[in-house]
Amino acid sequence: MAESTPSDVLRGTLDLLILKTLTLEDQHGWGINQRIQQISQGVLEVNQGSLYPALQRLEQRGLIVSEWRIADSNRRAKFYHLTASGRRALGSETAAWRRYVGAVDLILES
What is the pTM of this model? Predict the structure, then answer.
């Protein structure tokens, strides 16, 4: 796969990316997707069929909450906000992700 081709976000990392994105500001689904693409410089692409179920899952777990607001486009959109539990989960998930990446890196360097 060429470097310029966007990659689908791995399912196991999507929750982590959403939580991190919401530390920056409350955001609606499309905005979360755009922010992930922007920060990853176009490398990561989130499929809507994965994004919205992930948002529902995070909301059911109490890691995010949502409310309807008017977006910049003058349309109603569901905005998501990180909860205190979500911030704690982000910390532990980030640590777990870094351990995982370190382990994979050790294998690749061997």
Answer: 0.87
Q: To 10 degrees, the CA torsion angle through 5, 11, 14, 15? A: 180
Rounded to whole angstroms, how far apart are CA atoms 70 and 99? 40
Name the E strands within the chain. Answer: 7-8, 27-28, 44-45, 64-70, 76-82
Cβ–Cβ < 8 Å for 45, 37: yes
- 49 within 8 A of 29, measured Cβ to Cβ: no
Q: Is 76 helix (H, G, I), strand (E, B) or coil?
A: strand
Tokens 């796969």 correspond to what residue?
1
Q: Over the stretch 82-105, which tens digit does the pLDDT of each residue have?
A: 999 999 999 999 999 999 899 999
DSSP helix/strand/coil, 60: helix
